[in-house]
Write a structure and sequence with these properties.
It contains 2 helices and 9 strands; from the N terminus they run H-H-E-E-E-E-E-E-E-E-E. It is α+β, with helices and mostly antiparallel strands.
Length: 167
């Protein structure tokens, strides 16, 4: 009788161990709060309606959080609008000057928009940046994909006006 009980207990234990899921996803509903705001700051990225935060770490843990640097170039006006999401009708939240350096962290599916991280460095009249690009915390790997939450600014710009300078 004892042998039967032990065998039944082992079968139940084995069955429960096999039923556990090992699926890993960065889009699980219950983990969205931590992904969107991993530092716990009160000012949240994505607080504007329609805002799409810039994601970093998309290359994986062996690559820099943002894998390229670009320079604003070929503007038709005085500045390049930085939008809250990757589409023309999205609200503009800032502007970049010709020659300003930016980190390129992600792209829209159609490749028409770059998700960028940038500081407030200004460019000179000849279009060259007057200061080196600030370390915005994206020049080294991050453990997993997440929304960028500072210390620099982030947003979406038309990819046509950003030329790759380092990658």
């Amino acid at each position: 009788m004892m042998r039967i009980l032990c065998t039944a207990a082992l079968i139940c234990f084995a069955a429960s161990a096999c039923s556990e899921t090992t699926q890993v996803s960065d889009d699980l509903q219950e983990s969205q709060t931590d992904i969107a705001n991993p530092t716990g700051r009160t000012e949240r990225v994505g607080s504007n309606p329609g805002e799409r935060p810039v994601r970093i770490g998309e290359g994986g843990p062996r690559f820099d959080a943002c894998q390229a640097v670009g320079r604003v170039a070929g503007l038709r006006s005085n500045q390049l609008d930085v939008h809250i999401a990757p589409f023309d009708s999205a609200k503009s939240k800032d502007g970049l000057s010709e020659g300003q350096l930016v980190y390129i962290c992600t792209r829209s599916i159609d490749q028409q928009w770059f998700g960028i991280v940038y500081d407030n460095a200004t460019a000179s009249a000849d279009g060259e940046n007057t200061a080196p690009l600030t370390d915005c915390g994206v020049s080294s790997p991050v453990r997993s994909k997440r929304n960028y939450d500072g210390p620099c600014k982030s947003g979406w710009v038309e990819s046509t006006f950003v030329k790759l300078v380092a990658g």
